[in-house]
Specification:
Blueprint lengths: L1 E2 H12 L5 H16 L3 H6 L4 E2 L1 H15 L4 H5 L1 E4 L2 E4 L9 H16 L17 E5 L5 H9 L4 E6 L2 H13 L5 E4 L14 E6 L4 E2 L8 H4 L4 H4 E2 L6 H13 E10 L5 H9 L4 E6 L5 E7 L1
Parallel strand pairs: 5-6, 5-8, 6-7, 8-11, 9-10
Antiparallel strand pairs: 1-2, 3-4, 11-13, 12-13
């Protein structure tokens, strides 16, 4: 029988063949907490605890997947976003910290304007605040917004039914009510199925296919292409559709919040300005242009 100290150190050493030391330790901590039910502090204070063979086998299985560059989130079936533990699988994009910043921007916008303190009203006619999340994936944006803006009505769409199954489960787990709908947003004929909204929010696919070689293997080999990539000849296709969709589906004084490729924020700005939108570009915590707000 092996102690947790021995198994953990061997686990980390293996991970260091493909990850730097800090990331290897972080991944190992997460795996051991999930599979062996040992938090970091417990492991440090009880180094000589013996692990049973079943747990060691599960850890070894996880390690083999990790060494093949499978993201730890898919191995464990969970990811953290906005202080929520969400279910994820290979049908949905793994939520990123930058997307949390997009959520925070929307929430700040709601709370700093003429919405009442409980975020219950949008206009003087007492109408309910309505928000659409386009390309919801795991549902992370819609669910986080609903948690923060309880009185708002959240709708979320995705082209993938498999993704929507994950999103619906996450919403149920978080006890949040979201209106989910399977819909191909790029097909304008489907827009008639949607009403108008006060806010439109999206983290759409925006990486040109010719940039695949620049991405890590754990992303390219495992995360869904449909949630990541756009064609090289039309990398702004989703932003063009957002601007057109707004003609009949964004309410008066409504706003659009989108995540963008760090190199293409000016291109997105031009698309919205051609539709007479005013634009604000926001940097993420790394100083990169990653978010755009469009409004009239």
């Amino acid at each position: 029988m092996k102690t947790i100290d021995v198994v953990y150190n061997g686990f980390v050493e293996q991970l260091k063949t493909i990850y730097d030391e800090r990331e290897a330790n972080n991944i190992a901590d997460w795996v051991f907490e999930s599979i062996a039910k040992n938090k970091r502090l417990d492991r440090i204070t009880n180094r000589q605890k013996v692990l049973n063979n079943s747990t060691i086998q599960k850890l070894n299985n996880a390690l083999q997947h990790l060494l093949r560059h499978k993201p730890v989130q898919y191995i464990l079936g969970e990811a953290w976003f906005y202080k929520m533990k969400l279910k994820v699988n290979e049908h949905v994009l793994i939520p990123r910290p930058e997307t949390e910043e997009l959520v925070e921007w929307v929430v700040e916008e709601v709370r700093s304007t003429k919405y009442d303190v409980r975020c219950t009203k949008l206009t003087t006619d007492n109408s309910q605040l309505t928000i659409l999340d386009i390309g919801t994936g795991s549902g992370c944006i819609a669910i986080a917004l609903k948690r923060e803006l309880q009185k708002a009505e959240l709708s979320a769409i995705d082209i993938s039914n498999d993704a929507l199954l994950v999103a619906k489960q996450n919403a149920a787990d978080q006890n949040e009510e979201i209106n989910f709908l399977q819909l191909d947003f790029l097909n304008e004929r489907d827009w008639s199925l949607l009403p108008s909204f006060d806010f439109i929010v999206s983290n759409p696919p925006y990486i040109p296919e010719n940039e695949k070689s620049k991405l890590a293997k754990n992303v390219v080999d495992h995360e869904p292409d449909v949630a990541l990539f756009v064609t090289d000849n039309d990398p702004f296709i989703f932003y063009k559709k957002f601007a057109s969709f707004a003609d009949n589906h964004l309410k008066e004084k409504g706003k659009i919040f989108v995540e963008v490729h760090e190199d293409y924020s000016k291109g997105v700005q031009k698309i919205f300005e051609e539709k007479n939108f005013k634009i604000e570009i926001k940097k993420d915590i790394y100083g990169k242009d990653r978010m755009v707000k469009a409004y009239k």
